[in-house]
Amino acid sequence: MRKNLAVTGLSIALALMFAPLESFAQPRGRAAEPKAAAGEDVAPEETVEVPEGGTPSAEGEPAAAEGGEAGSLDELCKIDPENCVKVDMNAASKRDIDADMYAVQQIWALRTNRFEINPYFSTTMNDQFVAHPAPGLALNYYLMHWLAAGVNGNVYAGLNSQSDFNFQTSRAARIGQPITEYQWNVNANATIVPAYGKFAALGNFIFHYDFYVVLGAGAISTRPTAVVDPDNRTFAYSVKPTFGGAMGIRIFFTRYLAAMLEVRDYIFWEDLENPSIASGLNGVGKPLAQDPSTWLAPDSSFTNNVQAQLGLSVFLPFSWSYEQAK
Amino acid sequence: MRTATMNTKIHSFAALAGLFAGLAVLVAAPDATAQEVQISGPLAGAKAVRRVRLHRDARFDIAPTATFTLLDEFRRNILFGARLNYHFTDWFGAGLWAAGGISYNTGLGDELQTKAVDGRNCADNPNTLACKRTAVSLCRGADCLGKSQLGSIVWMIAPQATFVPFRGKFSVFGKAFMDADISLFVGPAIVGLNERVDCTKGTCATTPTNPDAFSTAGRVAPTATFGLGFNFYPTNYAAFGAEFRATPLAWNTSGFDVTGDDAVDSNDRNFHINPMVSIFASVQLPTEIQVAD
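Output (structure tokens, whole complex):
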């Protein structure tokens, strides 16, 4: 009797054990070969998951299991007539479906409604005579995943440096190249992120990146460096309007931290030192060479200050919720 | 009664023991089966990337290139050439890049010609202070800087090894997709330069007895080259992209007597990293592509 009861208990347990095990042991649908329309490529990682018992149709959609869904429902109804669900499969198959399908779902580093704090350091790329390195900071708010509004600024003061090339050229050719130094600039920007993707490093570690472009306008404070007549000329900083654009790449280490490299062109009309020294005296008997109105060249110079900006981007908040299921 | 109750308890205990024993097996067995799932999710053990199209593995890569030098001081160079690589694996290849081309004055070169050469007219005013002080470093005559003084890169040959550590795909506004990779390359390089001919003190200035003090000649300079490329694959057998290349080299780009010793020689050469960017369209052969597991 005791033995029978023990056996009964074991049998119940074994029944419970094997029932879920059978479910666990169901073979997963084998991934079908990616199918593509003629001339169309399928992304490398994309596969078509086949439902259990089904095979993919020619169009890549899973075909019904043998017997069809109607057959399966009939079998269920036989087992449990009270809860039988009647579905007109023909009518159901003809109903309109408003399905939203996304080419890329649940972007890993979503930018929508997030702030970007972007400290960076920049260096001059297109001026062989004087360098204008500067620390900078950009702040952006992403209105959409691909569009942000923000500001940025650079502080050049104290970091402008003349190059050896400037000295060598001036001495060998006896020419004085007008040079300037920058103090600061600030800009309001629109950032557009048209392209993003992911890379696998050595086929293992996957990182995400994006390309972006920036359009901006603002102000820059600069002054000429007295080269032609440093004995008489001392220039004060003056503010000029500036505009320009940038292209950059961001590589995400986490969903909120990225490294960025940007090439930006700050365009403005620059005042340069007058290469000529005025002679004679003005109306009050003061040498014209000491008259600040004679120190600047008559025409402004169209200037492209191209900078490489390397830094980090921190996105806030650190986490978010997706609206769509994965 | 006591015995019956006891027996019932014993029986119940035996049934429960059997049940718990079975449950223990039940819990243990799926645990073992689901071990991978519990550790790292349903993709446990899966490759980070599957079914990658192997654009490079066991294929030749043939690409005509147009190369533009960057940050040029006095002469800008445009080199037209070709790159031929064979990739032993999808991440490693070897090949050769060769190019040759033309050069022209930069804005600074033109300004120097206009203001310092043409403006001073030292041929007719040789005794002015500026002309005397620049006699060793500036030629005389129309367009003389580009013709007889300024240095330029004429050609380059670079056997190079190519590594492709980064492979992925690229989306534009989430609609259009392309395979892409980032390649790194490095190798020796042989650079053909056009440079001002060396001269010793007393022979570097143009005089009636020394009219050819300013002239250029070719020099072959061995060095190294390295860089990285961005490659995009719109089809299985064609690609396009851009490469950023540096070729460190000491040369005299200006033809000046830089050191001020009234001679022009190797001491007047400055070190330049010589950055340049190449754009290319390439074809991968054979055209059939392999796909990874």
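Confidence is low (pLDDT under 50) at residues 1-10, 25-40 of chain B.
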